[in-house]
Amino acid sequence: MNEVDGRKRVIIEGVSPEIDAGRFPIKRVTGEGVVVEADVFADGHDAIEARLLWNVQGAREWNETRMESLPNDRWRASFETPELGMMTYTLEAWVDHFLTWRRDLVKRIEGDQDLGIPLKIGASHVREAAGRAAGADAKRLEALAVELESVRAAGPELDALLEHEIGPILERWPDRRFATRYGRELSVVVDRPRARFSTWYEMFPRSTASRPGRHGTFRDAERRLPYVASMGFDVLYLPPIHPIGTTNRKGPNNAVTANPGEVGSPWAIGAKEGGHTAIHPELGTLEDFRHFVEAARSHGIEVALDVAFQTSPDHPWVEEHPDWFLHRPDGTVQFAENPPKKYEDIYPFYFESERWKELWEGLRGVFQYWIDQGVLIFRVDNPHTKPLPFWEWCIGEIRREHPDVIFLAEAFTRPRIMYWLAKAGFTQSYTYFAWRNTSWELRDYFTDLTRTEVREYFRPNVWPNTPDILTEYLQHGGRAAFIVRIVLAGTLAASYGIYGPAFELGEHLPRHAESEEYLDSEKYQIRTWNLEDPRSISELISRVNRARREHEALQSNDTLVFHGFDNDQVLVYSKTNRERSETILVVVNLDPYNTQSGWTSLDLETVGIAPDQPFQVHDLLTDARYSWHGPSNYVELNPHVVPAHVFRVRHRVRSERDFDYYL
Amino acid sequence: MNEVDGRKRVIIEGVSPEIDAGRFPIKRVTGEGVVVEADVFADGHDAIEARLLWNVQGAREWNETRMESLPNDRWRASFETPELGMMTYTLEAWVDHFLTWRRDLVKRIEGDQDLGIPLKIGASHVREAAGRAAGADAKRLEALAVELESVRAAGPELDALLEHEIGPILERWPDRRFATRYGRELSVVVDRPRARFSTWYEMFPRSTASRPGRHGTFRDAERRLPYVASMGFDVLYLPPIHPIGTTNRKGPNNAVTANPGEVGSPWAIGAKEGGHTAIHPELGTLEDFRHFVEAARSHGIEVALDVAFQTSPDHPWVEEHPDWFLHRPDGTVQFAENPPKKYEDIYPFYFESERWKELWEGLRGVFQYWIDQGVLIFRVDNPHTKPLPFWEWCIGEIRREHPDVIFLAEAFTRPRIMYWLAKAGFTQSYTYFAWRNTSWELRDYFTDLTRTEVREYFRPNVWPNTPDILTEYLQHGGRAAFIVRIVLAGTLAASYGIYGPAFELGEHLPRHAESEEYLDSEKYQIRTWNLEDPRSISELISRVNRARREHEALQSNDTLVFHGFDNDQVLVYSKTNRERSETILVVVNLDPYNTQSGWTSLDLETVGIAPDQPFQVHDLLTDARYSWHGPSNYVELNPHVVPAHVFRVRHRVRSERDFDYYL
After folding, report:
1. Residue pair B536/B504 in contact by the 8 Å Cβ criterion
2. Residue B4 pLDDT greater than 80, yes or no
3. CA separation for the pair B335, B244 (Å, rounded)
């Protein structure tokens, strides 16, 4: 009883957003803002005043916003997130006797009560406020108290006094002696907009040489940039660009041994030429790399690097930092294994080393090095096989200096771990999207991602394929399957990526049946791609990406809503922009083999259409336009033509000159 | 990085049960136990060992229970709650290299790998454990390490060594250097069983005189005990028994003034004879009261008192403790009001007084006084109009000394506040049950109460009527309505109560149309009840209460499940005991006017019946038995006979002598 003041009567709880009792920050991008809600209540019937407090992290003072009272003791207010970095927020609320008095006075007047004592009580509230107030306000309040006491009856004079004189001044001097401060300060990471909305293209630079069989260089890769830009990608992600180990190097198709001249896997990082901060000599020099990054930027493309924390046996660190590796009783370094499988071309780091701090610093240094070379986006390979607390520390340290850096977690693992990595700092995350094919699976998964607390910290970056993932659906579904998957990826998620040119060229042969590995995978050999192949879907990809660029609705996930369709093979969903002025409605035939048709059952309110209002749907893929009306509309999709509609919903507007058009 | 050891690789989160990040305890009764689950995971593929730690609050050491691994990184263990008071629990988990090594060794043997180095590594784990171990274990482990190293091949010798020799000892000496302790210690309030399962009867002792018009006494009330006991109630709750104020005393039917001889409302507490610790002279003496409490106990009934923290203007505290009341500018004490309504017979306490601590202590003293007189159950009047933090403090203080005290919160207010009071310490809570009449309302409300986190702290005590609540349903539905409501109350909730004899005698006239107040309410006058009225449903009530007493399934709420019925006027639900050996299935016709019929769609798995197994349902209200089969069975309920079935589900068993009977 001695610790707290029992007169603090307001309770604040149920604050949202709040992740794990404030253990982790929520995520926003600049300009996005945060809407905060909380349960705020007290005993009895007194009026409550609640304020949202917010500021950039570490600021001396709070900014305050009055909260609005919603039904059922819920309160709401919001604040803007204008700048990169961390912000914090909390709440304060109190029982406000003056507000209570004003509210009750109205009822007393309505009930025709004598106002003598009530007005005296009101005057004492004003007088107390005068004691709290400074300067002119204090003097003025003293005078107003006298004036209030001298009022004889209800009427315009009293109303004006309260409304225009006393009210506005008193709002500045509430009695906060017994205010309750919420027990936690909550955090927001504010990222740049690309953290939320990004369109990725993964490409092996060594496969970009113009002449078949040659090892591509950054100069070659530069010539590929207009092609990538023309499809509308804004992040170009390169697999590791470092020297590749020779000891136990793998051959094509993951052969246990490599023949001389075989290039090996870029993820076997490190050779005598250097490790995680060196460049594979066959790709070029650091100068070439920087030139490449600049060239990409001039095409509106940011280069993302792969960071894979593991080494080949030839990595310089194996000699320089023996403590960073686990040694076996025979003195050899412990290679990677998942018994009985062995990966003798790869050494993992030993994170339980006595020198774990030095190791952590060393790894952080890798990010810092490439940041210094102008790279601000990293795709982190298998973060779930390194200690989870390391990532929270490492990303926190980097972002303190560089809040514009984006980390994408490539953690294809169990959901708890994927979510934890996102909570602990990863800006974006790979997902299970590649394996979600039926309408039920897609609805269920994207509802989890966009309609639960997960959306506050986990930003899905969905990939229909990667160099490790050639799904059964793509292996067998033909061209339609590739179109279906890119339309889904590009419209379900604000961030998505493809591994190309394999994707747009429809590369679909697995190493063997039941494998998700590509035959002749670029992971182990150089490939030459015919970008001019008439079967390429690059033109369709560019249309999807243009729709994304031109429509804010597709640039976030918060407004995703699934609609009904009377045929399970067809998935229907929509997204709306923040102002609800723009709706994109997507209809996809998930069956890549057969024409499917049926009737929509649209949630028209979500789409922003009145039940009796005809509207137009304008397909951004084909430019076709259809007149629709009401929730139920017929759709038929032939996978051998285009298996999807990406509709811009257009409202009918009657012009002044009395003809209809669609907006 | 300096604060934490980065080698603590395990994450523990998502602990359940856990209320508001451990801010509030969960509730259990003795013998009930707690099942704890958590998400426990780490990077990579190493084996994890997790332990539940638990003990009585304040104990020096933790008891430990190994947790079992469930799918999706969930872990579970449980502990018992044998004694009254507070217990605490938390978790610890670590990456266990020895367990990992053992698991991998099996795979290596299956993969026919050379075991030379793996066995050396195993021996080093055993040797390290020897370093941690004490006494004989240490010596033995040293020897076992040598033995393990000398093994040449897989086989029975190695299996036996690991299984019977090394394993059991190593389990006692795990390497917990890098163990993660969950960041919070969570609490459990352990109550006595009556906190969960109780059957209440509210009665005005002043209405128990044998001669009409006389003021009943505790001696009169004692003569009523066999009647109450015969119906099967185990808590007898009395409205305030204190002296009643005379200033502004209310007359019958809440008349603004009372005539001489009119008894007033017991909630206008305090007169010159005393206040909250005095007894109204017309009821008898303290001695009489104690005698009454003892007499009740001999009938298996506990007496519960009403604690209403407010006073009449005549309460001695008004003079003794002027600081406990708010004074108006004219020097008078502020009476209760809800403008423009005034309640001039009632003074509220002034909890924002400078002397709030003294007031808190004074109020706590009221409970203490009656505890000293042998009362251990309190029904607290309108706790939501006193500062919420007061209750957390007051109940905590009382229960520290008297963990057997039960507090029932009479807070008919908004849900957040009701739930908060329960979290803050109230043992049981009044509910919205009285106003939930349709099958949809009842399903929805009881699903919230029993299937969400709410069930961990909010114990519903449901009342079909109270002296303040005569619902429309009871006013108009006749005898059937009373039966429907008591069957629902007694079988949906483990704790319920009625205000009698009004309830069993079907008292249903309101003070005026649209009022929920009783005409000639006992709150303001003495009533004489004809307990012999043939229309009384006391016999049916005793059957409901016997079913509750005899069937563990009805003594908790956790297993409540709603089943389907093809007629919305009929509600079907079941409860099962902990061992799932006993199921009660209830079918209620909610329409008190018409016969309703239809077909069940039972969730047979929940009921513990195989789809092809015939079963018997035995009505505990009428003793009728029906043979049922499968999920779909016909039911017809005539409200003018009995509007409900309370079935004991009986499985068919084939006896050894080859005839069937039902268990």
Report:
1. yes
2. no
3. 16
Please give the Cα distance from B576 to B552 (Å, whole number): 8
Cα radius of gyration rounded to whole Å, chain B: 31
Chain A interface includes B354 (CB < 8 A):
no
Pick the closest to residue B52 from B41, B42, B38 (CA basis). B38
Mean pLDDT (whole number) for B308-336: 97
Contact list in B for residue A104 (CB cut-off 8 A) is 339
Strand partners, B347: B311
CA–CA separation, A350 and A387 (whole Å) = 10
Residue of A nearest to B115 (CA): A340
Question: Which residue among the candidates A306, A410, A456, A582 is catalytic per the annotation?
Answer: A410
How much is the average pLDDT of B225-229?
A: 98
Phi and psi at residue A374, in whole multiples of 5°?
A: 100, 10
Q: List the beta strands (DSSP E) in A349-434.
A: 377-381, 406-410, 428-429
d(CA B588, CA B651): 22
Element (H, E) at A223: helix A218-230
DSSP string covering B17-41:
S-BGGGTB-EEEETTT-EEEEEEEE
For every residue of B612-656, DSSP letters joined together read: T-EEEEEETTT--EEEEESS--EEEE-TTT-SEEEEEEEEEEE-T
Residue B406 per-residue DSSP state? E
Q: Identify which of A8, A72, A416 has the shortest CB distance to residue B416.
A: A72
Angle between helices A97-110 and A116-132 (to 10 degrees): 160
Q: Which residues of chain A carry a pLDDT beneath 50?
A: none
pLDDT of B442: 98
Question: Which of A111, A329, A351 is nearest residue B340 as measured by Cβ atoms?
Answer: A111
Q: Which two tokens stand for residue B323?
A: 């600081």
Tokens of B399: 């229960």
Q: Catalytic site residues of B?
A: 381, 410
Query: What's the CA gap between B96 and B110, in Å, rounded?
Result: 22
Which residues lie closer than 8 Å to A615 by C-beta, 6 or more apart?
A: A609, A627, A628, A629, A649, A650, A651, A652, A662
- Segment 102-131 of chain B within 8 Å of chain A by CB: 104, 107-108, 110-113, 117, 120-121, 124
Chain B 592-631, residues with CB within 8 Å of chain A CB atoms? none
Of B323-337, B402-416, B599-613, give the lowest mean pLDDT range: B599-613
Query: A340 vs B107: CB contact, 8 Å cut-off?
Result: yes
Give Cα A68 distance to the centre of its chain.
28
pLDDT at site A660: 62
pLDDT at A607: 87
Q: Is B45 exposed, middle or buried (0-12, 13-18, 19+ CB in 10 A)?
A: middle
| CA geometry: angle B655, B659, B663, nearest 5 deg | 55
Distance (Å, rounded) from C-alpha A92 to C-alpha B499?
42
CB pairs < 8 Å spanning A and B: 149
Say if the Cβ atoms of B416 and A356 lie within 8 Å.
Answer: no
Which residues from chain B sit within 8 angstroms of residue A388, using beta carbons?
9, 11, 42-43
Q: Residue A363: what pLDDT?
A: 98
Cα angle B36, B558, B622; round to 5 = 155
| String of DSSP letters for B101-167 | HHHHHHHHHHTT---HHHHHHHHHHHHHHHHH--HHHHHHHHHHHHHHHH--SSSHHHHHIIIIIIH
pLDDT digits (tens, 9 = 90+) for A604-659: 998 889 888 899 999 999 999 999 999 999 999 999 999 999 999 988 766 666 66
Of chain B residues 397-436, which have a CB less than 8 A from chain A? 414-417, 420
- pLDDT of B2 > 70? The answer is no
**Per-residue pLDDT tens digits for B48-71:** 999 999 999 999 999 999 999 999
For chain B, give the mean pLDDT.
96
Is pLDDT of B522 > 60? yes
